[in-house]
Amino acid sequence: MLRQVNLVSVAKAGILGTVIMTIIMYGPPPLMGNPPMDIMAALGSVFPFKISPYIFGFLVHFGIGIGLTFIYAAFFYGRLPGPTWLKGGLFSLLPWLFAITLLGPSLQLAAQIFGTAQSGPMANPCAIANPCAPKAANPCAVANPCAVKTQANPCAPQTANPCVAKPANPCAPGAQAQSGIPPQVLSLIVHVIYGAVVGALYRPRV
Questions:
Q1: Is there a contact between 4 and 204 (Cβ–Cβ < 8 Å)?
Q2: Which residues contact 183 (CB under 8 A, 6 or more apart)?
């Protein structure tokens, strides 16, 4: 099987499949919900480098896309039924199952190994720039200027509080995408599209 693997076709199919998958993942909210699936930030944040996590996240994300295409070409292309796009779509169920079950624990383990576990939960869209996260420099913590004021109190509860749990609040436990579609289903959609593109484009060595 390995002799029939066309590495050039693997690279082309893997890159294009990953590009299309990424465009959909980072697409406008009506397509994939709000917030987007920020997989590159999740992947890149496990590395202890003092640069943007998107740089390493981009490399890891596309490396995984190409690597999965190689696995498909080497071990699944000749064994799955149906047309080529269906072969790829069926294969995509395996990385999807990994993504919804083991990706989070794997990233947590990698973060502990690299010493970046305190940066926030991996694969959590609220881990970066979370407006609801507690802040160290709380102006109301010491010498509270709100203690003796009854009007214009900056610390008083507000009806438009961005940290109050809302149905569409990505920081709320168990929140779903704005479209109401569970994130597991959204993940399945993008993985199947990736697999179908890979299956349609890959051609083995003749």
A1: yes
A2: 33, 37, 176, 177
pTM for the predicted model, two decimal places: 0.69
Query: Beta-carbon neighbour count of residue 139 at 10 Å?
Result: 12
Distance CA 104, CA 111 (A): 11
The Cα–Cα gap between 167 and 176 comes to 8
CA distance 188 to 191: 5
Amino acid letter, residue 133: A
Backbone angles phi, psi at 103, to 5 degrees: -65, -50
Q: What is the pLDDT of residues 81-136, one digit of tens each?
A: 999 999 999 999 999 999 999 999 999 999 999 888 754 444 444 433 444 445 45
Closest CA to 187 of 14, 36, 47, 48: 36
Q: How far apart are CA 141 and CA 56, in angstroms?
A: 38
Q: Six-digit token pair at 160?
A: 């438009």
